[in-house]
Amino acid sequence: MTKFPMTVQGAQALEEELKHLKSVLRPQIIQAIAEARELGDLKENAEYHAAREQQGMVEARIRDIEGRLQNAQIIDIASIPQTGKVIFGVTVDIANVETDETVTYQIVGDDEADIKQGKLSVSSPIARALVGKEEGEVAVVKTPSGIVEYEIVEIRHI
């Protein structure tokens, strides 16, 4: 079975969501189903059907999270010695060579990626171009609008 990289923070977020689903939402749904059953005829009971549908979605999400955590290779970037190269989990400042615009990204697993929070998927074109490069090097990224060059300004293990 293939293991997928995940940061410590990403694993913690999934574990917190799993705990919430199991300890808060699941009991609420069970209670809602019990209350809806008391209303009588289940064939025409909208509350019952809605609660059962929500239960199915929550149980599917629980299985999904458990599967992701089981197949995760959790990487703690803070414990990895700095080599000066871009690797999974690092936070990297890059500057567009043409516009001099600087952005900061943390390279994370596919499940954790959120560009608005500066979390870039390791399988994205930018991350693939950056991995293995060192500070001062230029990474060439092929985008739909053409080739973009980024200079690696700083690499941090945080």
From TrEMBL:
<feature type="domain" description="Transcription elongation factor GreA/GreB C-terminal">
    <location>
        <begin position="82"/>
        <end position="156"/>
    </location>
</feature>
<dbReference type="Pfam" id="PF01272">
    <property type="entry name" value="GreA_GreB"/>
</dbReference>
<keyword id="KW-0805">Transcription regulation</keyword>
<keyword id="KW-0251">Elongation factor</keyword>
<protein>
    <recommendedName>
        <fullName>Transcription elongation factor GreA</fullName>
    </recommendedName>
</protein>
<dbReference type="Pfam" id="PF03449">
    <property type="entry name" value="GreA_GreB_N"/>
</dbReference>
<dbReference type="InterPro" id="IPR018151">
    <property type="entry name" value="TF_GreA/GreB_CS"/>
</dbReference>
<dbReference type="GO" id="GO:0003677">
    <property type="term" value="F:DNA binding"/>
</dbReference>
<dbReference type="GO" id="GO:0032784">
    <property type="term" value="P:regulation of DNA-templated transcription elongation"/>
</dbReference>
<dbReference type="InterPro" id="IPR036953">
    <property type="entry name" value="GreA/GreB_C_sf"/>
</dbReference>
<keyword id="KW-0238">DNA-binding</keyword>
<dbReference type="InterPro" id="IPR036805">
    <property type="entry name" value="Tscrpt_elong_fac_GreA/B_N_sf"/>
</dbReference>
<dbReference type="GO" id="GO:0003746">
    <property type="term" value="F:translation elongation factor activity"/>
</dbReference>
<dbReference type="GO" id="GO:0070063">
    <property type="term" value="F:RNA polymerase binding"/>
</dbReference>
<dbReference type="InterPro" id="IPR023459">
    <property type="entry name" value="Tscrpt_elong_fac_GreA/B_fam"/>
</dbReference>
<dbReference type="InterPro" id="IPR001437">
    <property type="entry name" value="Tscrpt_elong_fac_GreA/B_C"/>
</dbReference>
<feature type="domain" description="Transcription elongation factor GreA/GreB N-terminal">
    <location>
        <begin position="5"/>
        <end position="74"/>
    </location>
</feature>
<comment type="function">
    <text>Necessary for efficient RNA polymerase transcription elongation past template-encoded arresting sites. The arresting sites in DNA have the property of trapping a certain fraction of elongating RNA polymerases that pass through, resulting in locked ternary complexes. Cleavage of the nascent transcript by cleavage factors such as GreA or GreB allows the resumption of elongation from the new 3'terminus. GreA releases sequences of 2 to 3 nucleotides.</text>
</comment>
<dbReference type="InterPro" id="IPR022691">
    <property type="entry name" value="Tscrpt_elong_fac_GreA/B_N"/>
</dbReference>
<dbReference type="GO" id="GO:0006354">
    <property type="term" value="P:DNA-templated transcription elongation"/>
</dbReference>
<dbReference type="InterPro" id="IPR006359">
    <property type="entry name" value="Tscrpt_elong_fac_GreA"/>
</dbReference>
<keyword id="KW-0648">Protein biosynthesis</keyword>
<keyword id="KW-0804">Transcription</keyword>
<comment type="similarity">
    <text>Belongs to the GreA/GreB family.</text>
</comment>
<dbReference type="InterPro" id="IPR028624">
    <property type="entry name" value="Tscrpt_elong_fac_GreA/B"/>
</dbReference>
